[in-house]
Design a protein that fits this description.
Chain lengths: ~575, ~170
Amino acid sequence: MTEQQGEAYQGMLSQAQLNELRNLLVGLSNEELKRLQTLLRDPHEFAGEISPILPAAIRKMVERGQLSLNSVLPMIEEALHQGIQKNPQRLADILFPVMGPAIRKAVSEDLKRLIQTANAGLEQGFSPKRLGWRLQALFTGKSYTEILLAKTYIFHVSHVMLIHRQTGLLLHQEKADKAVDLEADMISSMLTAIRDFVSDSFNQMEHASLDQIQVGDMTILIEQGPFAIVAAVIKGMPPADYRVSLMEAIEAVHFNHALDLENFDGNVLVYENTGKFLKTCLVSYRKQGEGSKPWPLIIILIIILLAIGWFGFQRYSLNKRINRFTEQLDALPGYHINDIQRSGRFFVIRGFKDYEAPEYKQLESWKIHDTGRIQLRLDPIISLEPAMILYRAEKILQPLSSTSLDYQNGTLILKGTANKTWFEENLPAWTSIPGVNDIDTRELNVKSPPDLSWIIPAIERHQFAFDVNITTLDSVQQRQFDSLVAAAVLLTDYNAQYGKKMAIFVQVYTNRYGNIEANIRKATERVDAFVSKLKEAGLPDDLLEGRVLFTDEPSSSRGQVRTVTFNVFNSAEDR
Amino acid sequence: MIKKKVVMLGAFAVGKTSLVQRFVHSIFSDKYLTTIGVKIDQKQISLKDHDVTLMLWDLYGEDDFMKVKSNYLMGSSGYFLVADGTRSETIEVAEKLHDMAAVVTNNAPFILLINKSDLTDLWEVSEERLNGLRNKGWNVIVTSARNNQNVDDAFYALTEQMIGQQTRPLS
């Protein structure tokens, strides 16, 4: 039907009738037909219309075998190939966030293998310090090499800078606490200039980059991204895996600011929030032993050790004192110690004690400051041990010093000399001594008591007259001297038997003519010489006492110059 | 905060470093110019609406423009072409440098500075020649680093061009 015919029919039919007729013929309204016409004429509209169903259609075609991946693959490969040839950097930029982790993973695997190899070699090394590291590895579950590496390096990252790659402008920087402020803008630009200079001077490819600058013990590590670089200023030698931190930081910056970086117009405010990525690179590691020593801990340990030592010594010393006291106590007559037990702070000593046993507090070992910690639990007994019987006998009989006591098999044996008075008055008390069944006095010499009435004259009748400067005895004087000694021995016996302290003044006379001091000196020499002779003859020291008298003194009326006389006196009373 | 990279280009001994020193306080030694061919200085200036930090890349002057390291121009937001008014041939060097810089910087804003205006007795560049350059659309400013003539104005002018606004008229 031509257009003219249509217009003719249109004139005969109303619009509503025509629409109804169209519906009957094609099943579509006029508006729907117009929309289909627009779709066919406009490719963009048409593409938009079929785009939702196209993936499903392709999937259906692949399922039905009408379309194979092998037939599409060459076209995709060709498109990629041409795209890479045209602008390889573009693809590298696109893949950068993906390639970084992939490459890092591969490098990490290689490093792991390298560490395992190194570990095998390092296993051979041995020293006390390394032994400690091995123990640490054992307890922490880390590899020995990992700990070895960690212990042998020290580094400190002071600044991390984010730099726009093309302009060299500083986008953001982070610095460690207490790090000095750097001219970061200038340094960023200079780093870029140096990189360009190196690249230009050595005709490096565009992708080649300056990764590290080292000056003395300072290192600047640079990690490159497509649009920005991150530079870390490091004091010391960082571990190899520190670069991974830089990689992660630059990847994170690119991931979050890809468009900002690509269209950089000098506005650096948008990079303020990159600080969180850069801060992860601000790390430091202090080698063990390099820093200050843990003095508080060391001092506390020393104090603890000293306290332990002091308490240990005190305990040892106390035990030693207690044991010594116990031994001495056990050795005392009338004591028998069974055991010692510790009860809290106290030492409980158990045993037996004779009711007449000597007082233990006289013991030297008792004189210790911690006797308050000793508890004596001694049951009373009557001891029949020989030492206790003798102790009791001494106490009851009170023998003279010239009489000795012994005990054997129930018999008390008396030896030495005793005077008749003691023998008759004290000795009968032996029957009251427990354990003594008999006495033996066969070796006891019982003497009648010496009489002072004839001993004293026998001594005092002697006198020795000497010429000037003569001190030796002539033969006659020697006989007199022996007689004097014999009489003095009797006085000694008297003292022993009666417990007295009778003594003899050995007197020399002088006068006051001439030099009195010289006279006294000569007289003193003479009396000393005579006393020495008497001592040499066997008389005891406490029996003799020399003195010088003047002839004109009343007490020395019978004396003459250079004459030696003797006077008996009671040294306990007359002195 | 806005930061811009600006490059000083020009023949040998036209006064690039003197202009920069007049404008900023340098901390880096001039020896970098002869070692790596560039010395970098920093100047912070305030425009009406912006604080701008200029990173000034002072390139070592080469009469042979082919020796200029084009890498140093990369990323520049603007550049100065510096010529010596007492040596007219330095303007020709500046023109050739401009050809290269325009490509590398993707037609970034620039200003031609005819320096050493204090040396009037030795002045070689005629006003006609300068007008000819101006007629090409170039912004040409006659400066003297020694007398501090138009130095600050030149830097402000380029900065304003780079920022795309005009806040300070030339004197």
